[in-house]
Amino acid sequence: MRLLDTFGQPAVRQQWDTVLQQGKLPHAILLYGEPGSGILPGALSLANDILCSTPVYGKACRKCPSCNRAQKLIHPDLHFLLPLAGSKSLSIEYYDAWREAIGANPWMNVFQWTQFSDVEGKQVDIHKEDIEQVTTNLSYESFEGGNKVLIIWMSQFLAKEGNRLLKMIEEPPAQTYFILVTNQREQILPTIRSRCMQFFFPPISATEINSLLINLYHTDARQAEQITLESVNDMGTAMALARNSIVNLKEELTAWFRTILNRKPNEIVTWTTRMAGLEKEEQKQFLLYAIASVREILHENSDRNIYSHQTGSREMFKYMNEHFNPVVWQQVVQGMQSGYEKIARNANTKLLWLFLTITIKNTLSAYRLQHINT
Ligand SMILES: [Zn+2]
């Protein structure tokens, strides 16, 4: 099994196959969904189709030298625009880090990318000079005489600088394709969006996660089943869980919320000290998992019960749902996200966990529903 063949979204893949077979792929394509839904592997797969020199029914043959280079992300006509720190940074200078990041986790989010590009904690953007550089490169003939592809990853970071690309998207140079990838479609200029054929990537299904874990990442079947249950339809979380054998995220999360809900200050100190003693990466992974789980509570509230296969932590979530005003969860997520960023910026983790735990405790107290006495 190859990631580029499936990327966990068979329905999207099937749509593309039809479009490619009919030779109707437009030159501007927008893929949107959460990073854990496979938007980046999807973009790489489609780019490979476009760059293949001997396509079969429009699809990549995966055998020719062009396919080989596209799969290794070293095809000279495969360009990327990436969110970077520093207005003078160029994406091309980060291609090594980018390849390494994709190799490690093609389901990564922006936070994880900033770790790979060594700009953790800094503000990133897609910058003017980078856009100008890449549009100049695209205006030349292709290196291999075939198609050229530009993947704009997390293209919401274009913001209004997107205008610099607009003209090229409207009147593209010959054999040039743009693949925009985003988890915030609304942030993309409507003038650009309207030029693109758009594809939505829904949360990845449990069946697909299970299959990717077993066939692509060689996870043991029983472990894969457990991870699929815990991964909240997010392949990024699933991969993190598959790699994380030290901390049992679910148990740890339950322990944390118990500590928060109890009225024993000692327990808070004990728990936060223990968490602060873990590797920084583990702490960050734990927070990502906690954020995904709390989002699940939000979804339960809105009756969008797409995670109904997840039964393990159901009881605790049910309790929390019944006892707190739903508006609290957005604030809890924000607190956790800010905690994540602070850990990424090398904050004192012992103080951070203490502060974060007490803040969440206070937020929850403020929104505890009055009709239930506990
Ligand atoms: Zn090929």
UniProtKB/TrEMBL annotation:
Name of the featured protein: DNA polymerase III subunit delta
Example of a GO biological process term: DNA-templated DNA replication
Pfam families the record matches: DNA_pol3_delta2
Annotated SUPFAM superfamilies: P-loop containing nucleoside triphosphate hydrolases (SSF52540)
Domain of life, per lineage: Bacteria
